[in-house]
Amino acid sequence: MAKTTPGEFFRQVRSEASKIYWPSRQETVTTAIFVGLMTLLLAVFFLGIDALFGWIVSSLLSLIG
């Protein structure tokens, strides 16, 4: 594998960096809101599942003891 000179390396980095797509402010805000809502929805869902399983386990334990 041929070694790359520092100058060539920086040219390649600049070329690759120019291909990066940066989202607009609106896209970033929209995505952040969506992520926040989905996180809240999943938190409520898992809270419900945890409460349900907790109730099932406590019911089963009350039958035993």
Automatic annotation (TrEMBL):
InterPro entries tied to this protein:
SecE_bac (IPR005807), SecE_sf (IPR038379), Translocase_SecE/Sec61-g (IPR001901)
Query: Where on the tree of life does the source sit, at the highest rank?
Result: Bacteria
Q: How does it sit in the membrane?
A: Single-pass membrane protein
Q: What is its main location?
A: membrane
Subcellular localization, per the record?
Answer: Cell membrane; Membrane
What PROSITE patterns does the entry give? SECE_SEC61G
Record key words, sorted: Cell membrane, Membrane, Protein transport, Translocation, Transmembrane, Transmembrane helix, Transport
Q: PANTHER family attached here?
A: PROTEIN TRANSLOCASE SUBUNIT SECE
Q: Which protein family is named in the record?
A: Belongs to the SecE/SEC61-gamma family.
Protein name in the entry:
Protein translocase subunit SecE
Query: Which gene name does the record give?
Result: secE
